[in-house]
Amino acid sequence: MSKTPRETRVHQSLLAAAEKRLLIRMAGGIPARLNSDHLTALGAAAMAGAGASYAAAAHWPLALFAAVFCLALNWFGDSLDGTLARVRHHERPRYGFYLDHVLDACGMLLLLGGLLAGGFVSIFPAAAFALAYYLLTIEIALATHALGTFRISYWKFGPTELRILLAAGTLQLLHSPWSSLAGHRFLLFDAGLAAGAVGILFTFIVAAVQNTRKLYRLEPLPQLPVDQPVPKLRRSAGAAARRKATA
Length: 247
Fold this sequence. Notes:
Layout: E1 8-10, H1 16-27, H2 36-56, H3 63-87, H4 93-117, H5 123-147, E2 149-151, H6 159-175, E3 178-181, E4 184-187, H7 188-218, H8 237-246
Parallel strand pairs: 1-2
Antiparallel strand pairs: 3-4
């Protein structure tokens, strides 16, 4: 989807440059009868399909292939919708920004729910990852509003890299959902989500501190002369009238 009217997009992930060139080329081949809304709907449906595939894999392990396919479809729809809108000059900045974030929030919930239903992750790592993810999502939205900077990636890692990592982990589940370290056996996705939660929470803290300092510099407290009295708040006309009535 399109960016908000006054925002600056910051997308510096490992694959960002190559991905941008590919998306622009792909956008030129999309039939005229299809628009960005169709791609947005495809991305949202694909994320729901990925969650359903993880849940189904508890009984039919080959459904994990469907999960990987759905992740690829989600990349296609979610990444291409904004590019298509910009190439065709059909931007709808506020609509696109809002809808993208709503669908991303719902999609993550469906994805984690599918992993839980499939038995590939435990409740606590999933909850920790969800908490960290939504904290960072809120911080990004607030920074976009307050500073006009919309960050899509951190530490050279963005949504596309996350999908690739998730797809690789999903293919590993076909071999075994378990892993071991130092003689301890644990679910592969428990370790992955726990590590992801720590990384995202750290990113949230760093971003929150940096943005708070930046906003403080932009809006510092006024410096009053030492001998100047602190200005009193003006009383409202309603408060004055009430005092007269009770006198």
